[in-house]
Design brief:
- With 226 residues, the chain is α/β, with parallel strands linked by helices.
- It is 43% helix and 22% strand.
- The chain has helices at 11-23, 34-41, 60-69, 85-93, 106-124, 155-166, 174-181, 186-204, and strands at 3-7, 27-31, 48-52, 76-80, 98-101, 129-132, 135-138, 143-146, 149-152, 172-173, 212-215, 219-222.
- It is elongated, with a radius of gyration of 18 Å.
Length: 226
């Protein structure tokens, strides 16, 4: 049985979500404050977190930041009443994997949780160290190593690099990348994708041509020597 941690201070909503998830045969633990939620999340016992942003104590964004700073990669679905693009981007930049705005349909909540767990189950079955040409990436530590130099990547940079490393020389469309990294509202986040590609390209570039190539009108690919 998959274990989910629900961090939500609206008790009526938490009870409704908990009942729904238990009916779907998830093992759900609920807490209403950020400090307890962070402590439980860091235990590594949960397959996914469902996190409200506006919680007492440590708010959701700070909880995310601390969780990711300790290299905890548990997938996180953020729930919030905030519907501004800037708020959604801020949550994603702090390490959220998906975002759902209140009020939401229960069917959509269940679908997003299933999709989140599927993506991370596939990743978790693979090795932690991915290597292409002269550089490697440690996905558990989010460390990119090239020519003896180690850099710790942000959660979204890490996810983007991992996607390229798993599909070297393959053209990935913008839609494919955005669906993998954000999973929704790709039209809103297209400029954000371009920003992350630019950041990652600067990390990868040396004296040679950029490793990440733009395929005009389609997307990007990781060009390798072999």
């Amino acid at each position: 049985m998959l274990k989910l941690l629900l961090i939500e201070d609206d008790l009526a909503l938490a009870q409704a979500i908990g009942k729904l998830l238990r009916e779907e045969e998830y093992d759900v633990l609920h807490t209403a404050d950020g400090e307890t939620g962070l402590h439980l999340a860091l235990s590594g016992l949960y397959d996914a977190l469902i996190l409200d942003i506006m919680i007492p104590g440590i708010n959701g964004l700070e909880l995310l930041r601390q969780l990711r700073s300790k290299r905890n990669g548990t997938p996180v679905l953020v729930l919030t009443a905030r519907d501004q693009v800037a708020d959604r981007v801020k949550g994603l930049d702090n390490g959220a994997d998906d975002y759902l705005v209140k009020p939401f349909a229960t069917t959509e909540l269940l679908a997003r949780i299933r999709a989140l767990l599927r993506r991370y189950d596939k990743i978790g079955a693979d090795v932690d160290l991915l290597t292409v040409d002269g550089f490697s990436y440690n996905r558990r530590a989010r460390e990119f190593i090239r020519e003896g130099v180690t850099q710790v990547l942000s959660p979204k940079e890490a996810a983007l690099l991992e996607l390229f490393l798993r599909h070297p020389r393959q053209v990935l469309t913008r839609e494919q990348i955005m669906d993998r990294l954000w999973g929704y509202e790709a039209d809103v986040l297209e400029n954000t994708l371009e920003t992350y590609v630019s950041k990652l390209r600067k990390r990868l570039e040396g004296d040679e041509c950029p490793l990440i190539q733009t395929v005009r009108g389609i997307g990007y690919r990781l060009q390798t020597r072999d």
